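hey so i finally got around to running both of the ones u sent me last week. sorry it took forever, my laptop kept dying halfway thru and i had to restart like 3 times lol. anyway pasting them below in the order u listed, first the sequence line then the structure token line for each. didnt double check formatting much so if smth looks off just lmk and ill redo it

first one:
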Amino acid sequence: MKARPPQNPARPRTGARVAAVQALFQAEQSGESVETVLDQFVRHRLGSIPGQEGFEDGRVEAADVSLFARVLRGAATNPDDLDQVITQHLAQGWALNRLDPVLRAILRAAGGEMRDMGGPPARVVIKEYMDIAHGFFGGEEPRFCNGVLDAMARSFRAEEFARQ
């Protein structure tokens, strides 16, 4: 899975989120546990190695490892509940398994992070994952992703939107 890096890949929190999307994609495709993939990423794919070129080689040079782990574990905690929330915000008749696997990984990572009430505001989470969606997709997927992320944020963090 290759991506164009977000506009500023040197941002450790953005790097953590990109890596989390890649790790969730890998876990789904390989059938490995999130903990196994987390360990593989920490040991082999996070940080810089001379001669490796970052995103294009599947590496994420700048990544906040604690945020990366928190996002992955957030998505892996009660995954059926998270998938149910995502599915509730898809168009009627759409199943989660019909989505592109990278798009599923983006929605799961964002949802896992939004469920963490101690994390950044929902709008920040949406903005970060929208940058990632634009890095992977050039068509209608980012717009679709934005609608689902906004609806999920209102489910998980209704109080943030009630204060407007």
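and the second one:
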Amino acid sequence: MDKRLIINADDFGWDASATEGILDLARKNAISSTTVLATHVTASDIKDLIALRNISVGFHLNLIDGNPVSRHSLVKSLTDKEGRFLSVQNIYKKFLLNTLSKAEIKTEILNQIHRLKKMGVEISHADSHRHIHQYPVLGDFILKVLNEAGIKKIRKLNTNRFSDKRRMILKAMSLYPHRETKKFISPQILLSDFSADKKADMEVFSKSLATAFEKYQTAEMMTHPGIMDRPGSYLKRKEEYEFLKSCEWKSFLEKNSVKLISFKELY
């Protein structure tokens, strides 16, 4: 059976380091997909990205970092007094307590999608900042909005790792019976090893894929590359960027008959 891998670079537009790194990797055919933060990206960055046409460009939904794209008066329940998004903990707590406006969540999601489309992005799929689209209960509502907006492919949190606290939380979320996920196309397994291990290198890469393809045919590798690390973040952005840029991993794919695909090729 065919083995297929998507290498997705999250956080395009988050900051200059992520944007520059992802653009460089895309030019080198060192990733096959990226997802864009509509709340942060500039029109100039998008123009450079979509001009490449060799990777799929998706929507990185954000309800927890920075400022919304909607007018503050339209999304007051999602923001603080300064108009910035609430923390993920507060957003989730308010949703469960029914003090977060569903209408405002939908407004912000649709406005983020509209902003990307207006800048020329043909959205191939969606994932989200801190995986909020797969949170129990809240995730079902978000997925319903995405489906109504015409997005048919998403990242599904069937993660391969649960060896640390962060991965255990993701695994727990993946076990929640999201009814809405059945309406979407997704890779069968999410490889999050670069975020969990101490290194982003060939050993981690090869072990991750070898284990995944013992059971699955289609995998998504989640990466967060950047030319510099982000202060205060656990992500190894520079290390991931340097590893992917080396392209030494391509020989492993060839030897093991793994085809690198984009979300556009996922059916």
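quick thing i noticed on the 2nd:
The radius of gyration is 18 Å.
anyway thats it, ttyl
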